[in-house]
Every structure is written in C-alpha cells, then in structure tokens.
Amino acid sequence: MAELTHRRIKTNGIYIHVAEQGTGPQLVLLLHGFPELWYSWRHQISFLANHGYHVVAPDMRGYGDSDAPLCPSSYTSLHLVGDLIGLLDHFGQQKAFVVGHDWGAIVGWHLSLFRPDRVKGVISLSVPYFERNPDVKFVENFRQAYGDGFYICQFQEAGRAEKAFAKYDCLTVLKKFLLINKTDLLIAPPGMEIIDYLEMPSLPSWIKEEEIQFYTDKFKESGFTGPLNYYRAFDLNWELLAPWQGSKISVPAKLILGDKDINIEATRRYTTGDVLKNLVPELEVVFLDGHHFIQQEKPQQVSHEILSFLNKIP
Fold first, then answer.
1. Is 292 labeled as catalytic in the residue annotation?
2. Strand pairing of 253-258 and 96-101?
3. Hey, which end of the chain has fewer CB within 10 Å, N or C?
C-alpha cells in the first residue's frame, strides 16, 4: 500500500498543496471547509486508498501550504472550481468523485453545476445545495434573515474578524470554531464579535490535542485572511452565478448531515422537501448521529457512507 505523500501542484495560476494516497484508477477529491486543512480528511484518506481509490486532499487556496492570494475577488467559486479542474488535468483524469465538507461542499456543488462532464458523483457533508435567489444578494439575504450579528455578515468587513481573532491565541480561535457544538445559528448579540460570543469548548473524545495542534501550527503560518476571503467573495459569487440560474445538479449526489448540526431542524425540512429534490434529482440524504464536523466526529460511519456511494457508480 502506497504511503501518504505531499506535493505542490501548479494550477490556475497558483500552487495548491495536496496530500495524496492510493494508486487506483479512480480519483477521489476530498475538499475541506472552514477553518480546516487537508488534515480534516485524515481518517478517510487511508480508508479509501485501502479500498482501491486514488485519493487527493488539497489545502484549498488560502489555506495551509497552498498559495493565498490577498484579494477577496480571487476566491470566487469560479476560481475554486478552476483550481480543481487544473488538478484533474494534472492527474490526467477526465472525471473524479468529489467529496466536500462545509465550504468544500459548496465548491463540490459548484464543480458539479459548472462542469458535470468532469464529475462522476458528488458527496456533500453538512451543506445542502441552495439555488441562488435572483432578487437578493447572498449577504443581504443573510442580513435580512439573521441580522448584523450573523457570523457571515461580520466576516464581510476586511480586517474586522482578523482583529477580533487576534485577541486570542490561534489555538483558542481554532478550538472555538472546530469544536463548536451549538445547534443554533452563529449569531452574536449586538455589539459583540462572534469569536467573543463562542464558548471555549472542552476537548471532545473525537479529536486529540496533538491533532488540534497540527491545525494551529499551520494557521499560525498562513493566518485567517485567505479563509475569510471565501465569505467576502459571497456577493461576487452571486453575480457570477447568474448564468446558471435555474440549472440543476445532474450528477449522482449524496448528502451526509449530522443530526445535531447548526440549525438542523430548518435543514431537515429543506432536505426532505420537494425544492431540493427538484434541484438535485439524483440525491440521497443520510442523517448520522453527530454535529458539524461529522467526518472527524464519526469517521468510520462517514467513510463507509462515502465508500457505499462510490461503489454504486460504475
């Protein structure tokens, strides 16, 4: 069995760091979310490689050992999908399976929307596919629904979140976001920053102190501006997504959700309703006992759910 290896690959004008394992003929891309790294897939990489797949888990642009352009306009879905097309071309693969969590799930949905010819199937963890509202931009939609204290609204202003995060050490910031167990939305009271509102959690059984430290060491080097720029490109995404208004996700798809994730009741209503079924006709929805970072909290169940999906597609 091939060991886990690391390299940086030139794609879409930048260098993307990838962790890679397995030599099988079918490529699986594992896309992490906020605030994570390729490392969030540490349990799934070797599992899928041992079952005959070629597994590639990048640090998404702005994270870890990948390049981090400074401007928020370099973090649109077109850029992020472009990075992945470059990776597919580098590995000589016309099509790949795509598995994404959190922001990685959004990128996976958009890759499937823009280039279904390059996707064998898509698995999303924690984030369903949402159609663009043609009448209201993304951030204004969030602000109308949840107010200015909503974390995505707070992340819009350049430097604001970085300044608030800087009041804490990097380990504390990561623990507050990675180990979150709130089931309500992340909305800070008026006048309070979201990082101050989040409680300092105790370490759960599913993650070790040294694993948190791995994240910390990387974020100390790369900072948080790249990851925050994903949120700052939201409204530019809204403009760029207009040509796909009304389009559906046509590839086979699976959605894995933790039944204690943030705002889960609203998510459950949406994922079991007709709207999502119409947008993603070939969708399977699975609920597991867990929270937001489900692939780390329940690694065996998630790994088997991923494998069962991959094995079903010729």
1. yes
2. unpaired
3. C
Residue 231 annotated in active site: yes
Structural domain that includes position 93: 5-312
Structure-block tokens of residue 118: 């390059």
Active site residue 129: no
Q: How many domains is the chain built from?
A: 1
> Using CA atoms, how far apart are residues 122 and 124, in angstroms rounded to an integer?
7
Looking at 79, 101, 110, 292, which residue is catalytic? 292
- How far apart are alpha carbons 36 and 77 in whole angstroms? 18
3-state secondary structure of 283: strand
* Catalytic residue (one of 65, 67, 102, 261): 102
* Mean pLDDT, rounded, for 51-68: 98
Q: Which member of 59, 231, 261, 291 is catalytic?
A: 231
DSSP state of 251: S
CA distances to 30, 93, 216, 252 from 122, rounded to whole Å, are 10, 16, 29, 6
For 158-215, the pLDDT digits (tens) are 999 999 999 999 999 999 999 987 888 999 999 999 999 999 999 999 999 999 999 9
* CATH code (residue 218): 3.40.50.1820
